[in-house]
Amino acid sequence: MIYCFSKYSKLQINFLSFFICCLIFLISFSISKFISSKFNSNSKINDITISQNIENIVNNEDTSKLNNNSSILNYENLNKYAWALKIPKIDLYAEIAEGTDSQTLNKYIGHFEESKKESGNICLAAHNRGYDVNYFSRVKELEIGDEIYYLINENEYKYKIDEILVIYETDWTVIENTEEDRITLITCIENRDAYRLCVRGVKYE
Fold it and tell me: SS3 of 94, please?
């Protein structure tokens, strides 16, 4: 080995070493550029796919992908549910089902079985955060005078909010029947486990 290199001058050896280093650098640079271009290409494809998915959700083309806190539906489809609650101020339109157990509230607004359905005091409950559906997530934004629409058996009844209360979780007097036609909405209060938010409205023509 020493004999082979001894045939070349020091300048030639330095030049050969420089050439080999440059060649290695060019090969490494080319490989790096190729890998980078492939990664950027895949990244652009993913960005396009994500953008399309978001656009589809916004346009309600795939409502199953809506945020689980969302209760916004197209009002043109109001006849979709025979039993539903609609509150325009908070963009709420959701189906009602009998019962207030966890299985029911994970899909619907729940109706207290002991309360009335068309006259008297109609009592409803729903989650407001942390579950599969949280239809009452914006109920806290409601104010005295806001309107609530209750749909059942192809009839629509209108209520105007006249009471907003904070009650104990054990206070069930609010779901007792009343002589006047009312609607009562109940949901939890964030970080206050012992209390419930109660929004009540009175029926009007």
Answer: strand
Query: Radius of gyration of the chain from Cα atoms?
Result: 33
Q: pLDDT category, 69, cuts 50, 70, 90?
A: very low
Q: What share of the chain is helix, strand, coil (3-state, %, to 5)?
A: 35, 30, 35
Give me the mean pLDDT over the 30-39 stretch: 61
Res 55 pLDDT > 80: no
* Euclidean distance between CA atoms 124 and 77, whole angstroms: 22
How far apart (Å, rounded) are the C-alpha atoms in residues 123 and 105? Answer: 14
Q: Does an H or E element contain 17, and which?
A: helix 10-58
Does residue 157 contact residue 127 with C-beta atoms inside 8 Å?
A: no
Select the more confidently predicted residue: 129 or 77: 129
Residues 6+ apart with CB under 8 A from 115: 121, 122, 123, 175, 177, 184
Specify the pTM.
0.63
Average of per-residue pLDDT across 129-141: 96
Confirm if 68 and 131 have CB atoms less than 8 A apart.
Answer: yes
Helix (H, G, I), strand (E, B) or coil at 96: strand
Please, how many CA atoms are within 13 Å of residue 154, restricted to the half-sphere of its CB? 0
Which residues contact residue 127 at a Cβ distance below 8 angstroms, ignoring those fewer than 6 apart? Answer: 105, 106, 133, 134, 135, 136, 137, 187, 188
Backbone phi, then psi, for 172, in 5-degree steps? -100, 10
What's the CATH architecture for 75-204? Beta Barrel (2.40)
